[in-house]
Amino acid sequence: MNPDEFQRRLLAWFDIHGRKDLPWQQGINPYRVWVSEIMLQQTQVASVIGYFQRFMDRFPTVHNLAQAELDEVLQHWAGLGYYARARNLHKTAQIVAANGGEFPHTLEQLSALPGIGRSTAGAILSIACGQSQPILDGNVKRVLARFHAVEGWPGESKIAAELWGISQRHTPSKRCGDYTQAMMDLGATLCTRSRPRCEACPVAQGCRARQLDRVNQFPAPKPRKDMPSRQIYFLVLHDSDGRILLQRRPATGIWGGLWSLPEFEDAQQLQSWAAQRDYRIGNPKILSRQRHSFSHYHLDYTPVLLPLQNPNNCVMEDGGLVWYKANEIHSLGLPAPIKRLLQQLYSEDQYDQNG
């Protein structure tokens, strides 16, 4: 099947079956497409819809986003993960706003902005500007790797380059936005990672993987390696007024810029830290260990509840440490596991605030 026939069949399918009522498909402009594309990176559509709607309610324009405090942006992102996306979103908004609020209209300039790679830039330009630009997100990689039976893991530079060339050849000069959305829809709804619905696929007739009866072997998975794990303790220091001590994490790295609990390598280090501050504390309560998995390692964390018995010593700390009341926590940008932990502790009354 040549590229022209591929495009024709795909667009005919999209006209009937494609998704056209997603929130970012309404009032299309570069800003809305950009935000949606960043949110959709490594995140399912169903998870993004609510976040996108709340984000747009609060930051309807790039100027609104640029003028906001990073804290508030992170708060609206909390739970989506990969927080560097939110920090880059804020940086790019400030750059675009400083240039009059107009997004660049060339691939080179757009992909030079923080957090915008070649595929994201192509999606913005094709959907919002009608330009003929190829994309290669996860869904498109899977569709093209199967259609052409491309061997190898797409994360390898050689395989990625081959797929980019195929994507370029398949991208039409007209109806570019519809084609881009159709490719995303095909991968998300029919050509799925597991249990693909080949019988409903508009281009199944030309699919090499189907002809070889090897659909589930494409694309090749990332070579597996054992995930390391890291053991830490989180301190939940609380007083009789229901305040807990939170700490802002460094701007870069895991959970960058979010509020979290003070973190320690072991329980002894945790108690020594409290003693150095002349805190009079009650008996610690060590909760069961929990696991949160990142893309490259497992974080095994043990929460330790520590009641503070001399609240007069509860002054604002150095090093990003601040005391917050329970009813203030919901307004902060918190990592999802920390938010769940605190909600569980407060809702289930698992600790005695009087020590």
UniProtKB/TrEMBL annotation:
NCBIfam families assigned: mutY, PRK10880.1
Keyword 4Fe-4S on entry: yes
Species annotation: Methylomonas rapida
The keyword Hydrolase appears for this protein: yes
Origin: domain of life: Bacteria
The reaction(s) this protein catalyses: Hydrolyzes free adenine bases from 7,8-dihydro-8-oxoguanine:adenine mismatched double-stranded DNA, leaving an apurinic site
Ranges for domain HhH-GPD: 39-189
PROSITE patterns attached to this UniProt entry: ENDONUCLEASE_III_1, ENDONUCLEASE_III_2
UniProt family annotation: Belongs to the Nth/MutY family.
InterPro entries: A/G_AdeGlyc_MutY (IPR005760), DNA_glycosylase (IPR011257), Endonuclease-III-like_CS2 (IPR004036), Endouclease-III_FeS-bd_BS (IPR004035), HhH-GPD_domain (IPR003265), HhH_base_excis_C (IPR023170), HhH_motif (IPR000445), MIG/MutY (IPR044298)
GO MF entry, a single one: purine-specific mismatch base pair DNA N-glycosylase activity
Enzymatic class: hydrolase
Name the UniProt record assigns to this protein: Adenine DNA glycosylase
Keywords: 4Fe-4S, DNA damage, DNA repair, Glycosidase, Hydrolase, Iron, Iron-sulfur, Metal-binding
Cofactor comment text: Binds 1 [4Fe-4S] cluster.
Requisite cofactors: [4Fe-4S] cluster
Enzyme Commission number, as recorded: 3.2.2.31
Function field: Adenine glycosylase active on G-A mispairs. MutY also corrects error-prone DNA synthesis past GO lesions which are due to the oxidatively damaged form of guanine: 7,8-dihydro-8-oxoguanine (8-oxo-dGTP).
